[in-house]
Amino acid sequence: MTTNNGQPQTLFEKVWNAHVVAQDAGAPAVLYVDAHLVHEVTSPQAFAMLRERGLPVRRPDRTFATMDHAIPTRNVDITLWPSDAATQVRTLRENCQDFGVTLFDIDGPVQGIVHVVGPELGITQPGMTIVCGDSHTSTHGAFGALAFGIGTSEVGHVLATQCLLQSKPKTFAIEVEGELGPGVTAKDIILAVIARNGAAGGAGHVFEYRGSAIRSLSMANRMTICNMSIEGGARAGMIAPDETTFAYLKGRPHAPQGAAWERAVAQWRTLASDEGALFDRTLTLDANRLQPMVTYGTNPGQGVAVTDRIPTVDDLEDPAERRSLLSALEYMGLRQGQPMQGQPVDIVFIGSCTNSRIEDLRAAAALVQGRRVAADVWALVVPGSKAVKAQAEAEGLDRIFREAGFEWRGAGCSMCLAMNDDKAGAGKYVASTSNRNFQGRQGPGARSLLMSPLMAAAAAVHGRVVDVREML
Amino acid sequence: MQPFTSLTATAVPLRAENVDTDQIIPARYLTAVTKAGMGDGLFAAWRYGPDGAANPEFVLNQPQHAGAQILVAGRNFGSGSSREHAVWALTEYGFRAVIAPAFADIFYNNSLKNGLLPVALPEEQVAMLWDLVEEQPDTRIAIDLAAQTVTLSDGQQAAFAIDPYRKSCLLHGLDDLGYLLSKAPEIAAYEQHAG
Known about the structure:
Chain A is of the alpha/beta class. Helices cover 31% and strands 16% of the residues of chain A.
């Protein structure tokens, strides 16, 4: 580990410094990538580039592929799929076979959303650099990895050289102290951070989430928070590894075993930001005062506590923010000053790389047990991976969801991004546990209200936005 | 990569903040396995009506802005998904530069790798450009990458910042791959040391 002449260092700086392969004057750093995750949508043009230039994949042993974005979650028979999704899946199979890359295929026992599968296999480890052609790669920062999304050109660079040319980002401490109240979750922390700091507030920075409220969270909850770092504009989000991290990783297929495990844990313990390490910026949040959050607009920064009202233009000073509010409300069909509670919803989507892990499903199932999805609400639960699905079924969660009136699906991205057959209709309100409320994100003309799995489950039961705390 | 040295062209005013990559190209257009055809999906939700016909209200469809090669947009342009398809859609449609007060990080990086120049100018200058281009759609804006300037026909000029390495790559049409491949000995040494 680089000591930086005894100067205290942040978690980010320690991981960054340990991965700089070369640093020429006047050029960005050549940064080594420990694990490269690949999926069907952003990789085909990168593999095509390798073929054109006659290059191999430098480290197929550090490259892992799965399929998640385009695939339907209703049926695994590829012959029944839309031809474009089937073509992407076949192309990924061919590329992985030709270049010797491990593929977690939809036909196999392990498959799911890339940011759910990586951690559950133990591929994601503290101190690593991890990239993927997907902006929610920030998820893996929950383990104290430096993990960020890249474009397809960069996917090609990593396939060919296992490295990226990167300018060093700045650091941004997000301090969350205190204890979350009942019904307030990790999702509410991150939605509150983004509401406070803005959808672009983290640009050029890497977040480090710190403080007692973060320390007390499970790995699933930490992943929910780091996942949405990109929605706050940050390149990545990180949390220092601790006993919770080690306990999660121990025994997972790709985690070190035996003596190597002990050595790894000893090294991982050195990663936390040093006492006195300086961050370029800091934001502090009081966990005790947080409430369940819900978004009303078309960027993830446009969110309020469920007990609040939508802002009015008079609440905003910045002309650009006013313009954003008005255009968002026009799209959303909502009014300035409208209370969020009572807003009707048409669809409830529980899933995505943000909130599709077993803990998320347990929380939602506990709330809907013995209750029914409201009439006229289409509700679906999409587990993040085959392993999550199997675990949920072993615990009987699928039965709880089905009996309540939810559809129970296979693993994939599903309605988070509407590039498969799960799309919300134009004008429909979707109570969604996903990460983006962009115009049309969940289907052309669809209107997304982002919230936690607990809040989404509550919305399913009532057919409108409610404060879940009244149901606990 | 197509080099970018200078450009003198007309512009399209897109008066919107936080234009995310789902707006630039919706995910349903991402199902191709090549780069070709992405231009059709550019701003699809705004550009086409529900019947698929061109929406005459949308600024890109207005005849006075036909052939524009510069897009002038609001802050946080390109937020959201890492999809490079957003850049491919803009370049295939014919854009060579985007002027905005600020860009999302991944979009900015992706642009540089495809010869699409992202030009960050202060909010008030972007607002001035919106007014100017709306009033005089045929006005030509000159962007000089070597000098790092944007110049209007009346001589008004604004300077923009860009990383010197990225600038050099754009001017010469070089991508990162050649440079990274030249580091193979260092990469091998790193791998041996780091295990």
